[in-house]
Backbone:
């Protein structure tokens, strides 16, 4: 039995289609999780508190360890390890429009989400001197670690997701952790608005992916069977098959929870004249 | 048995007798697999009668084995000649349409050490999370593949291994150049009977990461991997079923893994991670079950067992870097 071109064409098309279904289903599943989180924290749920932070021992922060590598060409590559959230004892939140004072009980695994500006500033190369101090060690096979701390701004309002009762906000379960572990979330931005932006991005991504797939599939069936148009369509679908995978991963990483977004900044050695305006390219992360 | 030094480990699989052309007599099996793969692809390309289900399925199977040979060759080059080893990488790259040298950072330097050094394993099982486990198996390469190539591209920019990028690009050019040439000669035959098998193997070797590590305990010394120990399976797979011992003693030649598995792994491993048949495991786990397998607590299993058999993971990481440089011919044996 010879495998005909028609059969193999449908077989190939079905492979690309199934793959596209899986990639978009994965993204769609994440969008549904974010949507559930929005419902869980909607106004009146008692889960989301906006207010001002106060604490004698400082404000919540994120400690991030970056490992630097370089081959001595004026660039230092970093990869970030999992950030660790720190919530000092005695931190309190004063909800807006209320005279109440709530103490925060961080629990075992709090999530602290700083704003993008603070994060970008912390990951950037501060000056040429810092670059030159770090570069030799970064050239070693193991690289070198650089610790970074990002404190939440005590002068700006913060958003806390948790269960508020008896003057205390405690960790709560949300759809964001599929394992069902409770977390206290302290964010420098509105997590509901953040989730809405991620849902819009995912939706746009899914629609675009299917639009490209549909257009290329239609092209395959234009003109003479297996003629020039079909070849162009098939070649396009082959390229689509290879490219839709990184696109799916990029969208998924871009919409990850803020503490799970990979931090891989790249430092380029600042020129002496521009030492203060250090050049930095941080990996994509969601806008807070 | 106490800790081994670097020199001992690097020499542990040195061939005892000089062989013609190849470094170990069993390498002819790997060369035969790749040669057969090229013959089957050529027959399908040139002889229309060979474009049938038997040849097609055989080509897909051999493509997967081509990826297995990439894995073995990038751990321990097949030939005495370094130039021949580098050319062999190009030939293997065509077989799966990706640069074989990507295995150095992706597999040897990252995957072998899981998340020990804080870097994520680009092909860790948790990157997929469908509730229906079969979908995880199908989808896994869609996530692990891009993560791997992003990581490799980044690593290539800071690695101090001179010549890596040149070799990587030459493999890319050879693999895609030859495929493009075939497209030019016969578009549809190339797409259906060359490219599909090429990508099948490339995607299956990524899936192996899920099969071998899902629900295993990557923080443990002996229970981080699932093993498939059938004799016939391992003959065809060049002993790639013995995954625990391969992780722990990456310098050991693949032909010695079965004996080392029985000697070192069997007494220490949870029986759930020592599977007789991969086919049986796949059917049981992905077709007859909806959910992912229950996690194995490797550390609890190993609690009372001697831990001094292996060098530390940090030492093994350093050895892997040295091994990678040795294979590229840019370092001297310790």
Residues:
């Amino acid at each position: 039995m010879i495998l005909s071109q028609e059969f193999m064409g449908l077989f190939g098309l079905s492979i690309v289609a199934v793959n596209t279904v899986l990639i978009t289903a994965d993204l769609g599943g994440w969008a549904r999780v974010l949507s559930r989180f929005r419902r869980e924290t909607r106004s009146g749920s008692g889960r989301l508190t906006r207010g001002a932070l106060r604490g004698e021992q400082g404000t919540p922060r994120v400690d991030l360890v970056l490992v630097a590598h370089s081959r001595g060409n004026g660039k230092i590559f970093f990869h970030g390890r999992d950030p660790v959230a720190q919530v000092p004892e005695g931190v309190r939140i004063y909800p807006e429009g209320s005279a109440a004072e709530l103490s925060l009980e961080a629990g075992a695994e709090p999530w602290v989400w700083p704003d993008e500006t603070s994060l970008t500033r912390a990951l950037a190369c501060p000056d040429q001197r810092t670059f030159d101090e770090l570069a030799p060690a970064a050239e070693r096979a193991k690289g070198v670690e650089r610790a970074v701390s990002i404190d939440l701004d005590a002068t700006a309002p913060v958003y806390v997701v948790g269960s508020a009762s008896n003057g205390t906000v405690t960790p709560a379960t949300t759809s964001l952790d599929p394992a069902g572990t409770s977390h206290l979330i302290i964010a420098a931005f509105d997590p509901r608005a953040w989730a809405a932006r991620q849902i819009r991005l995912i939706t746009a991504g899914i629609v675009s992916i299917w639009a490209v797939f549909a257009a290329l599939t239609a092209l395959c069936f234009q003109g003479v069977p297996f003629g020039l148009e079909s070849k162009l369509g098939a070649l396009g679908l082959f390229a689509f098959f290879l490219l839709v995978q990184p696109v799916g991963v990029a969208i998924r990483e871009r919409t990850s929870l803020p503490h799970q977004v990979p931090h891989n900044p790249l430092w380029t050695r600042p020129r002496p004249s521009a030492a203060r305006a250090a050049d930095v390219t941080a990996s994509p992360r969601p806008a807070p | 048995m106490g800790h081994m030094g670097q020199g001992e480990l690097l020499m542990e699989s040195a061939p005892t007798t000089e062989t013609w052309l190849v470094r170990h007599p069993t390498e002819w099996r790997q060369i035969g697999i790749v040669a057969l793969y090229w013959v089957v692809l050529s027959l399908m390309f040139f002889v229309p009668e060979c474009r049938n289900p038997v040849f097609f399925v055989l080509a897909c199977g051999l493509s997967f084995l081509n990826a297995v040979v990439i894995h073995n060759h990038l751990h321990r080059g097949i030939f005495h000649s370094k130039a021949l080893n580098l050319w062999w990488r190009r030939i293997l790259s065509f077989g799966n349409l990706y640069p074989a040298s990507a295995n150095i950072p992706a597999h040897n330097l990252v995957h072998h050490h899981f998340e020990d050094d804080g870097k994520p394993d680009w092909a860790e099982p948790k990157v997929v999370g469908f509730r229906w486990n079969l979908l995880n198996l199908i989808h896994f390469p869609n996530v692990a593949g891009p993560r791997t190539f992003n990581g490799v591209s980044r690593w290539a920019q800071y690695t101090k291994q001179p010549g890596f990028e040149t070799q990587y690009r030459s493999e890319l050019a050879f693999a895609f150049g030859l495929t493009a040439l075939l497209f030019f000669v016969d578009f549809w035959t190339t797409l259906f009977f060359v490219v599909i098998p090429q990508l099948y193997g490339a995607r299956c070797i990524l899936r192996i990461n899920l099969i071998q590590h899902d629900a295993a305990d990557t923080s443990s010394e002996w229970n981080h991997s699932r093993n498939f120990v059938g004799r016939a399976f391992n003959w065809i797979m060049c002993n790639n079923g013995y995954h625990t011992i391969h992780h722990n003693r990456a310098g050991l030649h693949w032909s010695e893994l079965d004996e080392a598995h029985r000697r070192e792994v069997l007494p220490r491993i949870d029986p759930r991670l020592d599977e007789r048949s991969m086919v049986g495991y796949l059917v049981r786990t992905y077709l007859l079950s909806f959910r992912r397998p229950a996690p194995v607590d490797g550390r609890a299993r190993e609690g009372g067992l001697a831990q001094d058999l292996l060098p530390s993971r940090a030492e093994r990481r350093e050895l892997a870097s040295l091994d990678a440089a040795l294979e590229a011919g840019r370092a001297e044996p310790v």
Remarks:
- Chain B touches chain A through 40 residues (CB under 8 Å).
- Confidence is low (pLDDT under 50) at residues 1-11 of chain B.
- The beta strands of chain B are 227-228, 274-275.
- The CA atoms of residues 6 and 319 of chain B lie 7 Å apart.
